[in-house]
Design brief:
It is a single chain. With about 290 residues, the protein is α/β, with parallel strands linked by helices. It contains nine helices and eight strands. It has helices at about 5-15, 75-85, 105-115, 120, 135-150, 175, 185-195, 235-245, 270-285; strands spanning about 30-35, 40-45, 55-60, 85-90, 125-135, 160, 220-225, 250-255. An eight-stranded mixed beta sheet has the order 1-2-4-3-5-6-7-8, sandwiched between helices. α2 (about 75-85) crosses α9 and α3 crosses α5 (about 135-150). The protein is globular, with a radius of gyration of 18 Å.
């Protein structure tokens, strides 16, 4: 998500934008897509030709908590549904700064509760639910996992976190040294957290910034991927380590030579390999 200028500029540019109508978006030969507006805007991607209850995962888009919508993950969500033989539910959660924390997280959690409640009608196995997200979407996915554990909500079997943004303190070694990295940098990260939390000196909870969560025991197994030249790299690595120390099964892959969201050298073969690994990890996590 390359950004020139500030996130505030980007927010001003997206003012008034809305996701496109579903009929205006690309269709897919192998996936059926339907849309709901309750409890929030939700798109459901279901692989064609598969019978019986399928596992399902929420799919939470990135964008620094302030940008993006479900249109931006339309292709990826469909691809994930087809590859993983699973139902994928993309969530149109509310964005900061108009709707600061906990609005986006509560929308995401409401979508999880809706998915569990509607599992039978959706052809979903309610005992095999996961959460997935990239960047700030991974922060929301992790927050949803924590809420589900602490509220006694729908049990999760998997969390899939890609280049996750997890720590508003911005004091890891990678965040302090990779200050001017392309795509995402320390300045954008600081602004993102300020806009999401609703102020410069607002203290984050462990649900907003999961690196602050004191107890990680009892969370679902995780796949975490990080990029070697991403300021967020160490947040993902340290969170994976803490999950393992808490007894949570975790698989961590760091990809050297790539920037945030796996931008970087123009090596399509390597980027394709990373994408396939991510999809394979999702399938494995939902079909244990």
């Amino acid at each position: 998500m390359p950004i020139s200028g500030t996130l505030a500029d980007a927010v001003a540019d997206r003012a008034g934008t809305r996701p496109q109508p579903l009929h205006a978006l690309p269709t897919f030969d192998s996936v059926d897509v339907t849309e709901r507006t309750d409890p929030v805007l939700i798109r459901v991607y279901r692989p064609r030709g598969l019978t019986g209850p399928l596992p399902a995962t929420l799919w939470l888009h990135g964008g620094g908590f302030v940008l993006g919508n479900i249109d931006h993950v339309h292709q990826a969500a469909a691809q994930a549904a087809a590859y993983a033989s699973a139902v994928v539910v993309a969530v149109g959660y509310r964005l900061a700064p108009e709707h600061p924390y906990p609005a986006g997280l509560e929308d995401s959690y409401a979508a999880l509760e809706w998915l569990a409640a509607e599992a039978s009608d959706l052809g979903v196995d309610a005992s095999r639910l996961g959460v997935a997200g990239a960047s700030s979407g991974a922060a929301l996915a992790t927050g949803v996992a924590l809420l589900a554990r602490d509220r006694g909500g729908p049990p999760l079997v998997f969390q899939h976190l890609t280049t996750p943004a997890l720590d508003d303190r911005l004091d890891t070694a990678s965040m302090l040294t990779l200050t001017d990295a392309p795509i995402w940098n320390r300045g954008l990260a600081a602004e993102s957290w300020r806009l999401y939390l609703g102020g410069e000196h607002v203290a984050a909870s462990g649900y907003a910034a999961p690196a602050r969560a004191e107890d990680l025991a009892g969370l679902p197994p995780a796949y975490i991927s990080t990029a070697g030249l991403d300021p967020l790299r160490d947040e993902g690595i340290l969170y994976a380590l803490r999950l393992a120390q808490a007894g949570v099964p975790v698989e961590l892959h760091n990809f050297p030579g790539f920037y945030h969201a796996f931008g970087g050298p123009d090596v399509p073969e390597e980027q394709h390999r990373i994408a396939v690994e991510h999809l394979a990890a999702l399938k494995h996590g939902l079909w244990p």
